[in-house]
Structure formats: C-alpha cells, structure tokens
C-alpha cells in the first residue's frame, strides 16, 4: 500500500435546469480564457475545498452564479472514468489553473432546479460568462460534461415521474398551459391538451385561484397553484395520451 498513489482531487459539477414557460434550459458557463486560447463552454463546477462537504461545495458554486441560497439541489451520480480529463484542449486549459493538470479528478454530479425569473446570472471565480441554453441545442462541452448533463436529464425525468420533482421550475401561480408545457419539456413529447387538463383536474393536482393572467395580449387564462398534499401522494401523468401526427 505504501507505493500506491493516493489521488485527492474531487470536484462537483452542477447541471442547473430552468424553464421559461415553453422549453427546458440548462445553465452553462464559459470558462475563463487563458493566454493563447479562449474559454470552453462547460457545466458550472469546482474542486471541493478541504473544509467543505460535497453538498456545501455544490451550494457554493450555485451561489456564486446566482447570488441566492436554498436552491433545490440533488446529488445524482459520481463520475470516475480515469480518462475523463485526457482531451488535449482540456489539459491545455487546466495547465493554467492546476499544478498537476493530468491528475485524475473524480466529480460528483448534482442537478438543481431554479425559477429563471428570480435571479440574474453573474460571472464568478471560475466563469467568464454565464448563460442559459436550450436543452436541445447543447454544444460540445468541456471534459465529459455532455455525458454528465445527459445523465442529469435522465434522472430529472425519472424523478419527475416517480416523485413529481420538477415543479420547482414553475412560478407559484401558473396556467394549465404552462403546466402542460413543463410536462412536455421534461418528457420531450407532446400531450393532448384536453386529456391533460381532464387528468390534472380529476387528480386534483392543482387548485384553481380566483385570479387570471395580467399583462397579456391574448385572453387572460385562469391561474392555478400546486396542491402540495395531492402531489406528495400520486404521480398523474402516466396515462396521458401522446398526440399522434
């Protein structure tokens, strides 16, 4: 055991999901540029400090990007492929930030759910620029971040179905059209409007409010809020009918 090398490099990478009432978004960063090369696009993340837990490290990363605390955050997978940071362009970038750029790094993946209209993204110690990207238009990312993002999306879809995780993306008051758009965005499929509304109202997943939309050019729609008691008991979308064309 004395001759074996102990590798202490552990990081966290965060897949931050947002919803703009129509489509699912992911928060990406542009890494700080180094001399002779531009920064790569990547998921937000950082090495874990010696005096912090994994959860605290992920929360720190998100606070730097959003300025807020208490974001829904869930650990979903560990990524330990020995070759996950072996690409030449990734190593070139790491040389400017680490004494041992080729050292193996094990990263812990977290996914977060945020309301996009509740904060302004901002640059941080590890990001030159922060921006939202449509889930269907994700570019090639640094390291193995495309794989991490896909694994997070798979987990979000699984937990949305089983536990109703995902409603954190909606405003407190929403229309049934916005709710349907959320289901369609996460599940990546179209749902029949009539059947969707019938099922949601039958299961009492939402409570109708005596309020309607304001500031819209079309006919204002009624607003609803989530019925937290019903939500915790039963998922409702398993039998929704997919629209066929």
Strand percentage lies at 15-25%
The CATH superfamily of the largest domain is identified as Nucleoside Triphosphate Pyrophosphohydrolase
The SSE order reads EEEEHEHEEHHHEEH
Q: Whole-number radius of gyration?
A: 21 Å
Tally of domains: 2
Structural class: alpha+beta
Shape: elongated
Helix fraction, binned, reads 25-40%
List the helices and strands and how they pair.
Blueprint: E1 10-19, E2 24-31, E3 41-42, E4 45-47, H1 54-66, E5 72-79, H2 88-94, E6 106-113, E7 127-134, H3 145-163, H4 176-187, H5 193-202, E8 206-212, E9 222-226, H6 228-231
Parallel strand pairs: 1-6
Antiparallel strand pairs: 1-2, 1-4, 2-3, 2-7, 5-6, 8-9
Keywords: Hydrolase
Protein name: NUDIX hydrolase
Domain Nudix hydrolase: 7-157
